């Protein structure tokens, strides 16, 4: 691939523009200044299993909460599972620790949230919330994803049974259409896509509409706890409606299902903004945690060129300069990932980045860890608009098909507002470690470690 420039020229420019990261308390001062008055800061990750991505993301988030008055953290996790953590950090619910609060994350990939870095952040957030003045709203922790169909159904029914039993009976009758499929939701996706049986579309849409109408009626006791309860029910019902649509179109193609998922995350986020505005009486400021592929602008990537959009693009189109997206890259190290879907979490060796990738370009610099800002440096933006390869590791890592499985073309300076590069990184530590993770993966150079 011809990038149109030699590496020597961009390396000199990048060297002048980069901000070194050496673990000092002032490492991100200039980045905080660059974020400015943005209301929505999207912080990515180049894998779902790298300790340093979680650590630096948490560090930035702590500063945004403490210094810029952000109100919530929204993450690439299912709503009901994250909501249990949300209750814990606010001093609510029954969980006695962050580890217990993360117990709801049972499905693959549990380690994505059940890991030591998330525990550390949630414990910090609980302490931070406890320190706030009584009149200040506590910082929330909310999920954006849509894979919790069964759990969300159970949550809606449980909460309605407790607060409005007749409404609970109606919801139970509507959601009963899922009963034959909850143990194998792909079977529903297959039968619904072929029209073999009537699908659940109309019942779940009607259920959400009824809940939205009920929420518009002021309750007899209009307390904030009551509004929060109904918001929780409504968000689960919104997830159920969108998950039904997602599974119904699963066999229509990867692009359509991807677009539906990111449209859902955007919708959940916008509903959260409306709720926080109502709750706090001011425009909310929210940090988003998700993979680079969800928070970078898809229009600047091979994904977008093929017809996919993502949450980062949709939010940037709607909110413009109110959004600020930060991506991550790494050159090599280890990562917690599975070999296949539903596989065990393993401590995998991350191969050195491919030639003509951004990661390989950054590896040539004398400074191993740094961040770059693109908005105020036109020359840097032009230099890093590529296109070049960028690596993305999700919950599965397949080094045998590294190029096809984990790289895509991107215009980096148009994808993100800022980029954090950490040259050598290590695997995030799952709470539920197994002997295979502990042993790790033998490097390909064994027994010679060159």
Keywords:
alpha/beta, single chain, EreA/ChaN-like  fold, 8-stranded mixed β-sheet, 3-stranded mixed β-sheet, globular
Explain the overall architecture.
The chain contains 20 helices and 13 strands. It is an alpha/beta fold and 450 residues long. The protein folds into two domains: 1-70 and 285-450, EreA/ChaN-like  fold, CATH 3.40.1660; 146-284. Strands 1-9-12-6-2-5-3-4 form an eight-stranded mixed sheet, with helices on both faces. Strands 8-7-13 form a three-stranded mixed sheet. A hairpin with an 8-residue loop joins strand 7 (332-337) and strand 8. The longest helix has 27 residues, at 254-280. The chain starts with 7 loop residues before the first helix and ends in an 11-residue tail after the last helix. The relative contact order is 0.17.
CATH architecture of the largest domain: 3-Layer(aba) Sandwich
The average pLDDT score comes to 92
Q: Describe the largest sheet.
A: 8 strands, mixed
Terminus-to-terminus distance: 28 Å
Structural class: alpha/beta
Number of domains: 2
CATH structural fold name of the largest domain: EreA/ChaN-like  fold
Count of individual beta strands: 13
The low-confidence parts are 1-5, 445-450
Topology summary:
Elements (H helix, E strand, L loop, with lengths): L7 H10 L1 E2 L8 H7 L4 E4 L7 H18 L3 E7 H11 L8 H4 L14 H16 L8 E6 L3 H15 L1 H11 L9 H10 L6 H16 L7 H25 L5 H27 L5 E4 L2 H4 L6 H4 L5 H9 L3 E7 L2 E6 L8 E5 L7 H6 L5 E5 L4 H6 L4 E4 L10 H5 E4 L1 H4 L2 E5 L1 E2 L9 H5 L11
Parallel strand pairs: 2-5, 2-6, 3-4, 3-5, 6-12, 7-13
Antiparallel strand pairs: 1-9, 7-8, 9-12, 10-11
């Amino acid at each position: 691939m011809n990038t149109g420039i030699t590496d020597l020229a961009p390396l000199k420019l990048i060297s002048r523009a980069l901000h070194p990261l050496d673990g000092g308390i002032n490492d991100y001062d200039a980045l905080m200044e660059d974020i400015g008055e943005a209301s929505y800061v999207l912080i990515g990750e180049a894998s779902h299993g790298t300790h340093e991505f979680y650590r630096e993301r948490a560090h930035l988030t702590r500063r945004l909460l403490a210094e810029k008055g952000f109100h919530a953290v929204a993450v690439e996790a299912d709503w009901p599972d994250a909501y249990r953590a949300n209750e814990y950090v606010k001093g609510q619910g029954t969980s006695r620790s962050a580890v217990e609060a993360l117990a709801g994350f049972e499905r693959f990939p549990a380690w994505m949230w059940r890991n030591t870095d998330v525990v550390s952040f949630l414990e910090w957030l609980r302490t931070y919330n406890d320190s706030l003045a009584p009149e200040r709203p506590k910082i929330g922790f909310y999920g954006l994803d849509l894979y919790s169909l069964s759990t969300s159904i159970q949550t809606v029914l449980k909460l309605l049974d407790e607060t409005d039993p007749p409404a609970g009976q109606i919801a139970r009758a509507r959601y009963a259409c899922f009963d034959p499929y909850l143990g194998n939701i792909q079977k529903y996706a297959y039968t619904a896509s072929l029209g073999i049986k009537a699908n659940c579309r109309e019942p779940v849409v009607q259920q959400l509409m009824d809940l939205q109408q009920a929420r518009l009626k002021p309750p007899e006791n209009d307390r904030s706890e009551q509004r929060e309860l109904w918001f929780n029910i409504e968000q689960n019902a919104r997830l159920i409606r969108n998950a039904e649509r997602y599974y119904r179109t699963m066999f229509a193609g990867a692009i359509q299902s991807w677009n539906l998922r990111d449209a859902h995350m955007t919708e959940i986020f916008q509903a959260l903004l409306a709720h926080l505005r109502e709750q706090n009486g001011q425009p909310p400021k929210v940090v988003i945690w998700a993979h680079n592929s969800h928070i970078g602008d898809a229009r600047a990537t091979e994904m977008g060129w093929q017809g996919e959009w993502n949450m980062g693009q949709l939010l940037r189109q709607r909110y413009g300069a109110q959004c600020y997206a930060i991506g991550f890259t790494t050159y090599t190290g280890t990562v917690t990932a599975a070999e296949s879907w539903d596989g065990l979490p393993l401590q995998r060796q991350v191969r050195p980045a491919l030639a003509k990738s951004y990661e390989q370009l950054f590896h040539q610099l004398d400074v191993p860890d740094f961040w770059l800002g693109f908005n105020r440096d036109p020359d840097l933006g032009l230099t890093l608009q590529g296109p070049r390869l960028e690596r993305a590791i999700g919950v599965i890592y397949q080094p045998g098909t590294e190029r096809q499985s984990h790289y895509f073309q991107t215009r980096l300076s148009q994808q993100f507002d800022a980029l954090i590069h950490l040259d050598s990184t290590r695997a995030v530590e799952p709470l539920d470690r197994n002997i295979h993770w502990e042993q790790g993966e033998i490097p390909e150079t064994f027994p010679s470690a060159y």
